Amino acid sequence: MAAGAVVPSPPTLAADQLGFFRWGRIAGKVLVTTDGGDWVFLSEPEFAELLAGEIRDGHPRFAQLQTGGFLREGLDLDALATRLTRRIQHVARGPELHVVTMTRRGDGRDAPSAAPDARTDLDRETAEKIVEVALQSTSPSVSFQLQGHAGEPLLNVDGVRHLVEFARATNKRAAGKTLGVTLVSNLSRMTEETAEWLVANEVAIRTWLDGPAELHDGNRKWTVAGAHADVVRWIEWFDRRYRELGRDPDVWHVDARVTTTRRTLSAWREVVDEYVARGMRSIHLRPLGPLGFDAEAWQTIGYTAEEYVAFYERAFGYIVELNRRGVHLAEATASMFLNKILSSGDPATGEIRSPCLAGTSEVAYDADGRVFPGDEARRVDAFGDPLFALGHVRELTIADVVRHPTVRAIAAASLLDAQPMCADCWNKLLRVQGAHGGRPHALRPAGERERPRDDRDLRTLDDRDRPASLDGCGDPLRPAPRGGRSARHFTLSEKPWQIGRPMC
């Protein structure tokens, strides 16, 4: 919020008695936040007392504000530094997530693209080099996410098996890290033999479930999802197998994602009900970005930011209603933000980290061995712009990746402390990185972005439509017109945040 937007009463500022904090009005209260992750809602009179230096020992709010670092008196700088360090520890931790594209072949809906091709599959030598580079990370834990560019890594099932077995053997022999592997599959090529091998080798499964059969299968023209019947059958198979082995269902279950197209917006209840019916424990209602769709396709399946937010409010309200009835279903976006608000750390999700995880916490490898600072960067390359390519895995170490000028540029661009207005905003504690905005912002083409980001999507429902001048966080979202330019037509040579979908 702009410093002059509110005149405190009394009109005095006891700066020498205050710690460093940011503040803004939300839902009829004044929210004050610190870089250490502490926050508190104050009434208007309490906020005036804070600014005037009238909150002292004996005041009902004194202990809370002193502990949170809002007051100079008794300020524990060591504790504040510890909390701040915990929130940004991902910067120095080292790349943890390694996204590996196992094949660039299609999923079999187009017969020619499904044919084996050594030029499009990850070969054994390159897979081994990827593992060796990934295990060089200073992170104590390393996770491999195995995917296919067109949706199905199991088109290269031998490559999947070799990478997993080589990674486990190499880690056991040399690295000693906590190792995790996730297969991102549309399940169209799953067999019981492969499924048993995945279970035995503790490979987690992630897939797509867009709702009931009619909606899910209707979306397949635009997505990489498998047929609804196959997805449901294999979800049930894996869940049954995990139970038979006595595995913890909170850890071992199939993770599914929703591809939210225009058809999804009016079917919010049906989508949620489908996840409940399939026994899913979480649902991720993320918006679709235009990266990879031409203007005609985006006009058919895309939507505005306002339309998405309205859909999310209805769906999330219904999920909360089901929770109150005893149904166990979490919404991933809400969970991520609540984790950021209520915990002392910073969530693993790159979209709400500052700086984002591209290159510093996430590295992506194409099937030909080229390396990128995250999978979104690899996708930009797949659509014809090699701006974010870092080199080939045979020529790089993990230190080369982290220190690469492109990775440094992305980190600087996504650091909220370096963004005008963002650095002073009360919402810095909670918001996504200022360089390229959050998912709702992804619905807006680069040509329409007058500034990197606003905070409307993070306000309460009652506060969302208040004038932006009340909190100094910029103009309201202007949605992209239907049929606007696709991301592949954007100019990426100057500003990496001007793509149609966030990089991280």
Percentage of residues in DSSP E strands: 5-15%
- Global geometry: globular
Structural classification: alpha/beta
Give the H and E element order.
EEEHHHHEHEHEHEHHEHHEHHEHEEHEHH
Q: Bin the helical content.
A: 25-40%
Taking the alpha carbons of the first and last residues, their distance comes to 27 Å
Instruction: Tally the helices.
Output: 17
What is the subunit organization of this protein? single chain
Write down the Rg: 24 Å
How would you explain this protein's 3D organization?
- Helix 5 (124-134) packs parallel to helix 6 (157-175).
- The protein is an alpha/beta fold.
- The protein has helices at 44-51, 62-67, 77-87, 90-93, 124-134, 157-175, 192-200, 213-219, 228-244, 262-265, 268-277, 295-301, 305-324, 332-342, 375-382, 398-402, 405-413, and strands at 22-26, 29-33, 39-42, 97-103, 141-148, 178-184, 203-208, 255-257, 282-283, 330-331, 362-365, 370-372, 391-392.
- It is built from 17 helices and 13 strands.
- An 8-stranded mixed β-sheet has the order 8-7-6-5-4-11-12-13. A 3-stranded antiparallel β-sheet has the order 1-2-3.
- The two termini are 27 Å apart.
- The radius of gyration is 24 Å and the shape is globular.
Keywords:
disordered N terminus, alpha/beta, single chain, three-stranded antiparallel sheet, about 35% helix, about 500 residues, 13 strands, about 10% strand
SSE layout and pairing:
Layout: E1 22-26, E2 29-33, E3 39-42, H1 44-51, H2 62-67, H3 77-87, H4 90-93, E4 97-103, H5 124-134, E5 141-148, H6 157-175, E6 178-184, H7 192-200, E7 203-208, H8 213-219, H9 228-244, E8 255-257, H10 262-265, H11 268-277, E9 282-283, H12 295-301, H13 305-324, E10 330-331, H14 332-342, E11 362-365, E12 370-372, H15 375-382, E13 391-392, H16 398-402, H17 405-413
Parallel strand pairs: 4-5, 4-11, 5-6, 6-7, 7-8, 9-10
Antiparallel strand pairs: 1-2, 2-3, 11-12, 12-13
Helix pairs in contact: 5-6
